[in-house]
């Protein structure tokens, strides 16, 4: 599947490409970020239109770009570009749910049916047997609605996307799409990445608070951390400035025409991947999260309890947070995200002192793992 389905899968697979260990090793000291710049340049050579990145460590903030932000004008990318962050949204959603648990307003051991009675039913799905924790760590077994063939043809592939890119979809519609299929497995018996899990998590936030999940993210995370480039766009198809154009193939392969897919109605992703941010804000968010500024120690510890990942056995998935060890022994935490024309990564060391976030404005090529390895391992 192309666009959202492939971009999310690629971003998550890349984000799960290295083993996890218990304690982080210190990053090697070096002057500047030449290896990171070289890896970004290599991604552009591989076909990515452009890359925008920011890193923050003990030496300060480093901003860099490679390639172009507009294929028609050859205008360069800006390191301050805003972009669609896709599944990085999941860490924000998980953080809010954990805050609600800390406030005693819900429990991770609550069933989905307690909060959304009757919604998760059909073809073997049963919300009475699935917990909120299983939504957040993708052990629920709930089918991923983005894998539905009809949904894919309508919103990911060329003819469907060009006709339906401005459609508004409700989260309930997304869940109903998943319910047309059998579960991937019995709850708690395996692991499989499913965007439906976080659509449901967003709905639980709304039920528990009485407010749209995006309002809770703004009140609890965006405003306290002064994330001025970060927003939950809802149904708005526009990108705020500064931003570059986003490009996709809208096909099942990485060949063929390239389309400008910048504008789309992000309701097709909802709480699984609709947010917009920039690299500086993402670094600030993950650093604050790992430093304990957003969650009490108990909830942060819960977030970092990981499960094995079958498709990438050398990594681990927590509650909306991925742990991985790089080739040089540095352990980083974060998440990847993909949506039409946009592939992003945001990672930070466990102490929150060294962060990297970057975006490819194309969804069909480029080695994001190489950029992360270059920044933290210097190679």
UniProtKB/TrEMBL annotation:
Report the InterPro entries cross-referenced here.
Answer: AmpC-like, Beta-lactam-related, Beta-lactam/transpept-like
Its keywords, alphabetically, are:
Carboxypeptidase, Hydrolase, Protease, Signal
Region Disordered, annotated ranges? 54-75, 232-252
Give this protein's Gene Ontology molecular function annotations: carboxypeptidase activity
Give the Beta-lactamase-related domain ranges: 40-362
What are the boundaries of the signal sequence?
Answer: 1-17
Q: Coiled-coil region(s) at which residues?
A: none
What's this protein's name?
D-alanyl-D-alanine carboxypeptidase
């Amino acid at each position: 599947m192309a666009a959202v389905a492939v971009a999310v899968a690629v971003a998550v697979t890349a984000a799960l490409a290295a083993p996890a260990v218990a304690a982080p090793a210190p990053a090697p000291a070096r002057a500047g970020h030449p290896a990171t710049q070289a890896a970004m340049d290599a991604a552009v050579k591989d076909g990515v239109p452009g890359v925008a990145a920011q890193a923050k460590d003990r030496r300060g903030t480093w901003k860099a770009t490679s390639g172009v932000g507009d294929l028609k004008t050859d205008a360069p990318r800006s390191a301050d570009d805003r972009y669609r962050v896709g599944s990085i949204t999941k860490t924000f959603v998980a953080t809010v749910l954990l805050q609600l648990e800390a406030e005693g307003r819900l429990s991770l051991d609550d069933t989905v049916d307690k909060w959304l009675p009757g919604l998760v039913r059909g073809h073997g799905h049963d919300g009475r047997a699935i917990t909120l924790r299983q939504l957040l760590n993708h052990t629920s077994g709930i089918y991923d609605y983005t894998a539905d063939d009809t949904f894919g043809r309508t919103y990911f592939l060329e003819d469907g996307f060009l006709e339906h890119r401005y459609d508004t979809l409700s989260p309930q519609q997304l869940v109903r799409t998943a319910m047309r299929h059998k579960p991937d497995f019995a709850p708690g018996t395996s692991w499989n990445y499913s965007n439906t899990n976080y659509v449901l998590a967003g709905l639980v936030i709304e039920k528990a608070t009485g407010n749209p999940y995006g309002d809770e993210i703004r009140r609890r995370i965006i405003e306290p951390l002064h994330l001025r480039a970060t927003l939950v766009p809802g149904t708005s198809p526009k990108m705020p400035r500064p931003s570059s154009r986003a490009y996709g193939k809208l096909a099942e392969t990485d060949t063929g025409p390239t389309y400008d897919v910048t504008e789309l109605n992000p309701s097709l992703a909802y709480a699984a991947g609709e947010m917009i941010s920039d690299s500086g804000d993402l670094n600030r968010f993950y650093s604050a999260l790992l430093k304990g500024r957003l969650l009490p120690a108990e909830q942060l510890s819960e977030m970092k309890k990981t499960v094995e990942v079958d498709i990438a056995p050398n990594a681990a998935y927590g509650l909306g947070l991925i742990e991985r060890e790089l080739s040089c022994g540095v352990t980083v935490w974060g998440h990847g995200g993909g949506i039409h024309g946009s592939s992003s990564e945001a990672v930070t060391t466990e102490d929150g002192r060294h962060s990297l976030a970057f975006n490819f404005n194309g969804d069909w090529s480029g080695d994001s793992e190489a950029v992360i390895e270059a920044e933290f391992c210097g190679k």
